[in-house]
Automatic annotation (TrEMBL):
Stretches assigned to the VOC domain: 8-149
Protein name: VOC family protein
Keyword tRNA processing: no
Protein species of origin: Acidiferrimicrobium australe
PANTHER family: BLR8189 PROTEIN, METHYLMALONYL-COA EPIMERASE
PROSITE patterns referenced in this protein's UniProt entry, alphabetically: VOC (PS51819)
Biological classification of the source: Bacteria, Bacillati, Actinomycetota, Acidimicrobiia, Acidimicrobiales
Length: 157
């Protein structure tokens, strides 16, 4: 067996229309913490993303209880083009946050005016049977899943 060249995931990148608005949502609603924030123009960034005049405002957020980061990119140049961010569309992705008490999290979301696609839904089949989940959208329509794993009894599979 050959050694894996891929060692880990550094971050999940999301393009947003308003970095300040997204930072407020991800820090206040989803309890992420800002690791860094910066502006980039041209140079290596332009080469990587394939836009010669690229200008971005960006931030890295640490996800609660994890080393994973979310990178938020607001393109100043070129400007973003609107598109349908439906869960069924190819290329659409979602981020799943794990919570201990989905009902309490749902109450928090409602109080903050966050609209969810559904209230908490019990998972009634498969490996996550006994858990619960809901989907919501961030300020740009990016899909977020909030998931409460099933409570397992020791020795149960």
């Amino acid at each position: 067996m050959t050694e894996s060249l891929v060692k880990s995931v550094n971050h999940i990148g999301l393009t947003v229309t308003d970095l300040d608005r997204s930072l407020a949502f991800y820090t206040e609603v989803l309890e992420c913490s800002v690791v860094m924030r910066q502006e980039k123009k041209g140079g290596y960034l332009a080469a990587i993303v394939g836009y010669p005049d690229a200008e971005v405002s960006m931030a890295h957020l640490r996800m609660p209880g994890a080393d994973q980061r979310i990178e938020l990119f607001e393109y100043r140049v070129p400007r973003s083009v609107e598109r349908e961010l439906e869960p069924c569309n190819v290329g659409n992705a979602h981020i799943c946050f794990v919570v201990e008490d989905l009902d309490r999290m749902y109450e928090r979301l409602v109080v903050r005016g966050v609209q969810t696609i559904s209230p908490p839904v019990a998972v009634d089949t498969g490996v996550n049977k006994g858990g619960a989940a809901l989907y919501l959208r961030d300020p740009d329509g990016i899909t977020i899943e909030i998931f409460q794993p099933p409570h397992r009894i020791e020795g149960e599979s």
